[in-house]
Amino acid sequence: MQVFLRVALIIITLAYPFVFYFGSESWDPWVLGVFLMALASTRILATDSQLGSKTIWLGIMVFLGFVIFGLGRPDGYKLYPILVNLIFLSLFSYSLVFPPTIIEKIARLAEPDLPPSGVIYARKVTICWICFFIINGSASAISALWMSDEIWLLYNGLISYLLMGALFTVEFLVRNVLRSKNDQLI
Q1: Concatenated DSSP letters for 13-28?
Q2: What pLDDT tens digit does each residue of the chain (186 aa) get?
Q3: Does the global pTM surpass 0.85?
Q4: How many beta carbons lie within 10 A of that of residue 46, not counting itself?
Q5: Cα(163)–Cα(132) distance, rounded to whole angstroms?
Q6: Contact (Cβ atoms closer than 8 angstroms) between residue 24 and residue 76
Q7: How many helices (H) and strands (E) does the chain have?
Q8: Which helix (H) or strand (E) is 92 found in, with range?
């Protein structure tokens, strides 16, 4: 069931900008709201149960975002990507202040006895992701507030995913280069 929820989450998340763009002119705002709540519910259900109260907080934030930004205004749904970036920025920042970081937790799934150099590296990667969420959230805000719907769709439906993929790829390559130089790093 967990795998199904994760796959559904990926599909719904990738589809969101397109559903908004193509549906906002022909559907009532409540239909888009139902889609957004399905996305939020799937995200909550697919989240690892170890997150505990963070999962509840995520759900509350998504729900509040829906209520605040989507109530009766179809263009308000364009703010959802901003809210998602704010949530992830908050979670990653929280984990930086109150370790272990999210990246360290992920790294420990593959390597439970993570050496101190790996913990330091995970902290640096967490900082990179925090910077990404600040920049990506800002770009999402600019596209939602001051750009056309087509630019918003292009950025939030394609470019932001390409940038995220690029960050994953660069981090993977850097990690492998560092690992080849120092066998005990991540």
Answers
A1: HHHHHHHHHHHTTTS-
A2: 567 766 776 777 777 777 777 776 776 666 666 666 666 666 666 655 555 555 566 666 666 656 655 555 556 677 778 888 888 898 899 999 999 999 999 999 888 999 999 999 999 999 999 999 999 999 999 998 899 989 998 999 899 999 999 999 999 999 989 888 876 555
A3: no
A4: 19
A5: 9
A6: no
A7: 8, 0
A8: helix 80-97
